[in-house]
Automatic annotation (TrEMBL):
The keyword Signal applies. Residues 1-23 form the signal peptide. Keywords: Signal. This is DUF3857 and transglutaminase domain-containing protein. It comes from Algoriphagus aestuariicola. Pfam families: DUF3857.
């Protein structure tokens, strides 16, 4: 089953409001005159109008789409190639019709319109039921205004995709309206800060509309890979429908509920997994599982089963809540998607008498920042396992082939999920506990024999910090690259030597690394200038743009502590070093301290960077940018040792 890619954006400013026409060819003088988007200078194109109008006829959702786009720079010509993806399936589930397009250029100050014909439209089969309509606008140039419209029919009226208000170019005007028939009742699912705080809404005679103006374009931003979760959009889930002619004395139609309860929805999934064999009541055959899991505590049994599945099965395919294989097929093939492996793991634990149940979640990046509090299945895409081990509940996962027992993939660190229990399925909170830290200790001294400045570095990474290093190390090994490449980019002016790795993730949740960074011919210099803490990735500010569209997401809470002991060589004096500092931003979601102690023959430097709340909203971006600039400046500050000429 294919996941739908949803796109998100979180901030807008109402700065530009042209007189929009929703009809093709009715272009205003203001739109012809537009040379630049005032709130997003440098944008290569602008979506002047985006409009959708939906109605339900004879069990089909019909939506009329209309877009007007202006090319503002040479780079904006890429917007002249339009791609519209839809799911046809085996029964023509979605279809496109009524396609019209035209391009308008100013020649001698007068608009010249070129209408596209059938040769400019292409329908491409992408496989697995997906198709793509492609529109190629001829003679596109800076100043061109592109317009296109089409109608999409969708036979699925249980869950309506609705409307996403943002696009790859800034959107000056985006409106969606839908007419709901009297015999159907839908739950409206809204998402996005702008939708709730700045949209213009109307509701009249069964027609509902939302309008947003002056939206920023979609752009990649540092520390936000799950931007789809912060989109401004509306969707609809069928709640109940009017059917029949009634009974008894009433004689009128009756409302029938369509939405199941959480309990019924859960039972349907349990029945599905049962038919696939994942709810095991009998022991797994000894010849299939060549490991003894009969003794020890429940924690020890669960751990042994986890490592058996992780290390003996190939993890491949997309994570999803449905399975392509039965449990016997999976045990035989020894390969499967993460969801299949988690359910197989559940089957093994149940056969050992361990209480455990699946938890459906909407993973990060799937398009929803918060769970919808009424029961529809489309909001879930991945599976966790909740087990009771020796009286303690623990979330378990098998998404990452390198992760030790007890680790849950970061994309599954969400606030809530649907616990599947027979006749008792319900929403539960999800709180994954961990202590992800990085400890760095550096001992820095001038070697009198070689004349080299030698930094002996030791790094201790715990939990997810350690797992991140484990992936980097594996990548280097797979590519037959030296371990020195772990630090080459960080220590550009230094030579990296003697890298050793001690991976104890499974036993102690740590990955420790020791290495030397060496400045050659240091003794020949009158002044030694070096950064004792340059290993920190925050020695450069990742936030350089003027404004922020999406929240900043550090993914998880963590602490990094750096300690450097600098020995003052004979014949040198300490000329300069960074001063102490302690900073944070309002609300203290993030903090930084820097301390220097001059102990005579030794200078001790300690810095601590701590993320206490990993999600920082765009309205705090100005404070965060200034904070990170201060952190980067301090972490990049050098220690300066000056030669005195006397030994």
């Amino acid at each position: 089953m294919n996941k739908k890619l949803l796109i998100a954006i979180a901030v807008l400013l109402p700065l530009f409001s042209p007189g929009q026409s929703l009809k093709m060819g009715e272009i205003s003088q203001e739109e012809f005159d537009l040379k630049e988007v005032s709130y997003e200078p440098g944008a290569s194109a602008a979506c002047l109008v985006a409009f959708g109008d939906s109605r339900i006829f004879n069990g089909t959702l019909e939506t009329q789409y209309f877009y007007r786009v202006k090319i503002l720079t040479e780079a904006g010509k890429e917007h002249a190639d339009i791609r519209i993806r839809y799911y046809s399936g085996t029964g023509n589930v979605e279809n496109l019709s009524g396609i019209k397009a035209q391009i308008t250029n100013l020649e001698g100050g007068k608009p010249v319109v070129t209408k596209l014909d059938k040769d400019d439209f292409f329908d491409v089969d992408l496989g697995d039921g997906l198709k793509e309509l492609r529109i190629s606008f001829p003679n596109a140039q800076v100043g061109s205004i592109l317009e296109y419209s089409y109608k999409k029919g969708d036979k699925n009226i249980e869950f309506l995709d609705g409307w996403t208000f943002q696009r790859s170019a800034p959107v000056l005007f985006s409106k969606y309206q839908i007419k709901i028939p009297e015999h159907l009742e839908y739950k409206t699912i809204g998402q996005g800060a702008n939708l709730f705080s700045k949209s213009e809404r109307t509701s009249e005679y069964g027609t509902f509309s939302w309008t947003l103006r002056d939206l920023y374009s979609l752009k990649e931003e540092p520390y936000m890979k799950n931007y789809r979760d912060y989109m401004d959009r509306v969707e609809f889930q069928l709640s109940r429908y009017m059917s029949g002619s009634g009974s008894g004395y009433s004689g009128g139609p009756e409302w029938t509920d369509f939405l199941n309860s959480w309990e019924k929805l859960g039972d349907e999934l349990i029945a599905y997994y049962t038919t696939k064999g994942f709810y095991r009541g009998n022991p797994i055959e000894r010849e299939i599982l060549s490991v003894d899991m009969s003794g020890g505590t429940e924690q020890e049994k669960a751990k042994a089963a986890y490592y058996y599945v992780r290390d003996n099965f190939v993890n491949e395919g997309s994570d999803w809540i449905y399975t392509d294989q039965t449990l016997p097929q999976l045990l035989k093939s020894k390969k499967g998607a993460p969801g299949e492996l988690i359910l197989a793991y559940m089957g093994i634990l149940k056969s050992l008498g361990i209480e455990c149940n699946p938890v459906l979640i909407g993973s990060k990046g799937y398009g929803r920042s918060e769970i919808v509090p009424f029961p529809f299945l489309n909001q879930f895409d991945e599976i966790l396992l909740l087990a009771t081990l020796d009286g303690q509940q623990q979330f378990l996962d098998l998404s990452d082939p390198l992760a030790p027992f007890g680790y849950v993939d970061l994309d599954k660190h969400v606030s809530a999920g649907l616990l599947l229990q027979k006749n008792a399925s319900k929403l539960i909170e999800i709180d994954i506990k961990h202590a992800s830290n990085k400890l760095v200790f550096s001992s820095i001294a001038l070697d009198p024999e070689t004349g080299e400045l030698v930094m002996d570095n030791a790094i201790r990474n715990t939990h997810y910090e350690g797992l991140a290093y484990a992936h980097r190390i594996k990548s280097l090994k797979d590519e037959n690259k030296p371990m020195e490449d772990l630090f080459k980019q960080t220590y550009e002016a230094f030579e990296i030597r003697n890298v050793s790795v001690n991976d104890q993730l499974e036993d102690k949740n740590t990955v420790s690394i020791q290495f030397q960074s060496v400045m050659k011919d240091a003794a020949a210099q009158d002044m030694l200038v070096f950064n004792p803490l340059q290993i920190s990735e925050f020695a450069k500010n990742p936030f350089t743009q003027d404004f922020r569209v999406f929240p900043v997401d550090f993914e998880y809470t963590f602490r990094e502590t750096y300690t450097a002991n600098v020995a003052i060589p004979a014949g040198y004096v300490l000329d300069d070093y960074p001063t102490n500092e302690m900073i944070t931003i309002p609300g203290s979601p993030i903090g930084f301290t820097y301390q220097t102690e001059n102990l005579g023959e030794l200078v001790k430097i300690t810095a601590k960077f701590e993320v206490r709340s990993p999600l920082i909203q765009p309205e705090s971006y100005g404070d965060l940018k200034f904070f990170m600039e201060s952190v980067a400046s301090k972490l990049a500050s050098p220690v300066i040792l000056k030669k005195t000429g006397t030994l």
